[in-house]
C-alpha cells in the first residue's frame, strides 16, 4: 500500500509504504527504527522521519536493535557493523541532535516497548526484502497500539522496489528497461538534513560501545574481524570518491576490462560491505558515477549495470520469491534439470567440513575459499566458479545450495545479503540465467571449469596472490596476539 503525501514532502511518495495506519494526527514522537540503512546522510527513511516529525512539531529518536542472533553473523560482520554504528551514533547526536537508542534482544519486543514508553505516534522503518525482517514488521504491526502508524521507506534501492516492478522478474533483461525508465525520476540528489524542530525530552541513552563491541567480537571470534576495510559512512565515501584510493577518482578507468580478473581486486569498487550495511547509499554511488560518465562512459555503464540492475534485481527476487534461498525458488526448467541429474556420478564428493577447510583437489577453488575465510571478500568472478564447483562436488543441488549459503553468510563481510542469496541461486539453480547445453551433474545449468578460468586470467598468479594475502594476515594476527600478551604482562 502506498500513500500520497503532501507535495511539499522531500521524499517521493512511491518510496513509502504504509504498513499500518494509525491516527491521522501525530501527537507523540516519531521513531525511526534503523535496520538496513545505517547512515546519516542520503537516507530517505531518516529524511522522511524528520520531515514527519517537523510537520507535526514532535521530536524524533532513532532506534537500533542488536539481535542476539541474525543469520549467523560473527565477529567479522558484527564488529564492522557496530564500529560503523558507534561513529554514526556520535554524528547523529552531534549534527542532528537526535538521540540514538540501542536495544539488544528481539526487535518484536524492544521496538513496541520503546514506542509504548515514549508515547510515539509514528514508526518509520527502512526496507529489506528478507523474510525474517518482513515477519518482524508484521509482528510489530500487531503489537503496537491502534493509534500508531508504521511507514516503511525503501532507502536502499534507487528505484523503490515496488515501483520498479510489481512481480517476480525473470532476469536482468526483463527488469532493466523498467528501472532505466524510472531513473530520471528517482536518481536525484538528496536534500541536506538539518536538526529537527523539536528536541527530544526525557532521558537520552548512552551506549558503552567499547564493552559491547568487545563482548560481541569475543562471542563471534570463530570468524575474526578484518583490518582492510574501515567501517563507517566517511570511510565509505572515501572508498567511493576519496583522493587517495577512491573508486571513481582513481580506479574506475579500467573497471569494464579488469572487473573479471581476480588478480586485480582493486579493479572492483570494493563497495559491497558498505552497501550491505547501508553505510553508503547506492543512489549516492550512482549519482557520483554519472558525474564522470562523459570521461569513462564504458566503465560507468558497466558499474551501473551491477550497482543498479543486478543489485535491485536481487532485491526483486527475494521480495517476490518467498523461497529465495531454496531450490524450490528456482524456475521449473532448472528444478527439473537439476533433479534429472541428481544421481549422476560425481568425480569428487566433499563434505561441508572439507569444503570449509579448503581441502579439495582443486588449488584454484581452495584459493578462493581461503580468500573468503581469511580476507572476508572473495573476488566477484571467483564467487561464480566457487559456487558452481560446490554443485559439482556435493551429493545434490539441495546440499550444494545449503553449503554455499552457509559459507557465504559465515565468511563474507558482505554476506547475508539478497545479492548473496541470488548469487548462490544463480550459480546453482540458474535463476536470472538461461538453459545451456546439457551435461552431467549440471544438466542445463551454466557450467564453469578450471580450463575456462585459465583462458581468462593467470590462475597460478591468483593462487600465489591468495597465498601471500593469507600469509600476511596470519603474520599480522600473530603479531597482534604477541602485542596483546605483552600488554597483559605489563598490566595494561
Ligand atoms: C555465489 C555468489 C555469492 C555472492 N554473494 C554476495 C554477497 O553475499 N553480498 C553481495 O553484496 N554480493 C554478493 N555477490 C555478488 C557480487 O559478487 C558482489 O556484489 C561483488 O563481488 C562485490 O564486490 P564489489 O562491490 O567490489 O563489486 P563491484 O563490481 O564493484 O560492484 C558494485 C556493486 O554492484 C553490486 N553487484 C555487483 N555484482 C553483483 C551481482 N552479481 N549481483 C548483485 N549485485 C551485484 C554490488 O552491490 C556491488 O557492491 C555474490 C555473487 C555470487 C556469484
From TrEMBL:
The keyword Calcium does not apply. InterPro entries: Crypto/Photolyase_FAD-like_sf, Crypto/Photolyase_N_sf, DNA_photolyase_2, DNA_photolyase_2_CS, DNA_photolyase_N, Photolyase_Class-2, Rossmann-like_a/b/a_fold. Keywords: DNA damage, DNA repair, DNA-binding, FAD, Flavoprotein, Lyase. GO terms for biological process: photoreactive repair; UV protection. Its EC number is 4.1.99.3. It catalyses: cyclobutadipyrimidine (in DNA) = 2 pyrimidine residues (in DNA). Residues 28-161 form the Photolyase/cryptochrome alpha/beta domain. The keyword DNA repair applies. GO terms for molecular function: deoxyribodipyrimidine photo-lyase activity; DNA binding. Its cofactor is FAD. Pfam families: DNA_photolyase. Belongs to the DNA photolyase class-2 family. NCBIfam families: phr2 (TIGR00591). Involved in repair of UV radiation-induced DNA damage. Catalyzes the light-dependent monomerization (300-600 nm) of cyclobutylpyrimidine dimers (CPDs), which are formed between adjacent bases on the same DNA strand upon exposure to ultraviolet radiation. Required for plant survival in the presence of UV-B light. Not involved in the repair of (6-4) photoproducts. This is Deoxyribodipyrimidine photo-lyase. It comes from Daucus carota subsp. sativus.
